[in-house]
Specification:
There is one protein chain. By secondary structure, the chain is of the alpha+beta class. It folds into two domains: 71 residues, no CATH class; 119 residues, Cytidine Deaminase, domain 2. 38% of the residues lie in helices and 14% in strands. It is built from nine helices and five strands; from the N terminus they run H-H-H-H-H-H-H-E-E-H-E-H-E-E. The protein has a five-stranded mixed sheet with strand order 2-1-3-4-5, sandwiched between helices. It is elongated and about 65 Å long.
């Protein structure tokens, strides 16, 4: 169905093409054998936490000798960290530290933040779903100024996929009278490249949105350190 671009849709401007994925952090964790003046805690006191490497920060928390990419550690629960051999207290501290970081990021993009671009949507979504170990599909309900009214989790998978029906994805918008919606889901693998299943689902969501009169703005795939926007990639094709 052909429809005139709405004022709401026009406000959502796609950014310049963004690389699909920044590779997962290659920083590796190791234990130092430095002189006393270069002990991480001493440098923390003198220079601040920003002067320390990731392995030093984790060492201060008690997670010594890890060689895992930090992005992977950030997605693990305390129990999963313990299964890697990290002591219980240290695992709890590391898990808490990552969660605090996510909450700081969430507070920097509160629910009333206008999402006028794909990158703004990613900044809102990444600390909320980017770390989750299972794939989840969410719908952001927006007002006429593209501010988030509510984030609704539509489906949660048991692994790296989840089943989504367009009816379930659009029902919250119809029920609550949202002016527009943004669809989003995460890729626990960290790579936000849309799969063929993602593309097919997006085509169905666009068609259903047109039929039901819901202003669908974009579909964002959230990875570990990057995202993919169907609108930016030229994959947002309406009838």
């Amino acid at each position: 169905m052909t429809r005139v671009r709405s004022e709401t849709e026009a406000a959502y401007q796609a950014d310049a093409p963004t690389p699909l994925a920044a590779p997962e952090s290659t920083e590796r964790l190791a234990i130092l054998g430095d002189a006393p003046d270069d002990v991480p805690t001493e440098r923390l006191a003198r220079l601040g936490a920003g002067a320390l490497r990731v392995d030093e920060l984790l060492g201060i928390l008690g997670a010594h000798g890890r060689t895992d990419p930090v992005a992977r550690l950030g997605r693990l629960t305390a129990a999963e960290l313990r299964a890697l051999g990290i002591p219980r207290r240290a695992a709890e501290r590391v898990c808490s530290a990552f969660e605090l970081g996510r909450r700081v990021a969430q507070s920097a993009a509160p629910a009333n933040t206008p999402l006028r671009s794909a990158s703004a949507a990613y900044r809102f979504l990444q600390p909320r779903i980017g770390h989750l170990p299972n794939e989840v599909f969410v719908v952001l309900l927006l007002d006429i100024r593209l501010r988030v009214l509510r984030e609704v989790t539509v489906a949660t998978g048991t692994g790296w996929a989840c089943a989504v029906h367009p009816r379930d994805a659009l029902a919250p918008a119809l029920r609550e009278g949202a002016a527009a919606v943004i669809f989003a889901h995460n890729h626990p693998s960290g790579d936000p490249t849309p799969s063929e299943e993602d593309r097919e689902l997006t085509r169905r969501l666009i068609d259903a949105s047109d039929v039901l009169g819901v202003r669908a703005i974009d579909h964002i795939v959230v990875g570990g350190d990057g995202f993919a926007s169907f609108r930016e990639l030229g994959l947002w094709v309406q009838s």
